[in-house]
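From the methods appendix. Each design record in this collection lists the tokenized structure first, followed by the designed amino acid sequence. Records were kept in a plain field format so they could be parsed without special tools. The example shown here is representative of the layout used throughout.

RECORD:
FOLD TOKENS (330 positions):
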């Protein structure tokens, strides 16, 4: 796994700095006054922040959350923030070693909770509350296809169109586009258990899946695959969900037998118990961090579509949303 480099201390965007000056100094404060305000805030919160090690799982929405919280922690609490590009299960391993302090977007991992939470595991991690985001996973087709063939939005009609989805990789069957193989997904089981004449072919990454949907809509190509919200692409192309047998409690308990849709998931945060107990002022920030799917999508779009750096995208959103940031800082 590639480990992202630590970020050195730097001043935030000018707009954010101006906001801080107004808040801390009553208006028109100098850079020195803003710096003193940062130091005072950190002291009042319980001392110097120290290091904050943030996992960044491989999708841009997670990246957006991590960099917004990390930028606030660095610029307003004086933390030294490191971003670590890790897959989900590897992130949780870092709680016990001290390599990871916070995971800011957990889509639900009962197996990892059992292993790392105190009730049943080693106690190196603990639940840290909702992010405010709702995770939605479905099978999707591009808008043009749903408009041209409305009946394709019912899985019972998919076999009728299977030949249209064939590719050189699908072995004579229709291709179903899976995502990053590290994501939690049951598509191979769903295809098999619903008797669908399709083969799952993994795109390999979020970026590859996005590019495939963009191309399919632009060129009116046949495409069906795994996709999810929050995701900035929906503002550009309103993908249409294919109706599968509805999710019911327990229908995904045995992976090989899954034959139902994915549930909506309240996304949550997870933190290192050791880091929480150490009392960094960033602990309260992470605990209070909460925003909406639209908030996350805005930052994700800045990064993935507009080409902004993660730091600049976070600074822009922070400057545009001072009330939300103030609520996190308490």
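DESIGN:
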């Amino acid at each position: 796994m590639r480990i992202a480099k630590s970020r050195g201390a730097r001043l935030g965007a000018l707009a954010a700095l101006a906001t801080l000056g107004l808040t801390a100094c009553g208006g028109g404060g100098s850079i020195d006054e803003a710096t003193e305000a940062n130091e005072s805030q950190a002291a009042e919160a319980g001392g110097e922040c120290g290091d904050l090690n943030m996992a960044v799982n491989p999708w841009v929405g997670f990246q957006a959350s991590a960099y917004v919280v990390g930028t606030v922690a660095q610029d307003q609490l004086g933390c030294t923030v490191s971003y670590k590009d890790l897959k989900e299960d590897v992130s949780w391993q870092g709680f016990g070693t001290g390599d990871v302090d916070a995971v800011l977007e957990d889509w639900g991992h009962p197996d990892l909770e059992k292993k790392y939470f105190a009730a049943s595991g080693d106690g190196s991690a603990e639940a840290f509350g909702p992010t405010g985001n709702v995770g939605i996973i479905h099978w999707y087709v591009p808008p043009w296809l749903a408009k041209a063939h409305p009946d394709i939005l019912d899985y019972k009609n998919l076999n009728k169109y299977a030949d249209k989805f064939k590719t050189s990789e699908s072995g004579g069957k229709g291709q179903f586009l899976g995502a990053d193989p590290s994501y939690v997904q049951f598509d191979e089981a769903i295809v098999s258990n619903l008797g669908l004449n399709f083969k799952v072919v993994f795109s390999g990454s979020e970026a590859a899946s996005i590019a495939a949907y963009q191309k399919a809509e632009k060129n009116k190509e046949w495409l069906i695959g795994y996709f999810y919200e929050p995701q900035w692409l929906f503002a550009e192309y309103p993908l249409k969900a294919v109706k599968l047998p509805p999710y019911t409690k327990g229908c995904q308990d045995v992976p090989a037998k899954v034959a139902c849709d994915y549930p909506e998931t309240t996304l949550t945060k997870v933190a290192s118990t050791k880091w929480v107990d150490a009392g960094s002022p960033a602990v309260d920030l992470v605990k209070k961090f909460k925003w909406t799917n639209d908030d996350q999508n805005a930052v994700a779009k800045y990064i993935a579509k507009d080409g902004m750096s993660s730091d600049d995208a976070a600074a822009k959103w922070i400057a545009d949303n001072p009330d939300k940031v103030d609520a996190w800082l308490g």
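APPENDIX NOTE: Confidence is low (pLDDT under 50) at residues 1-39.
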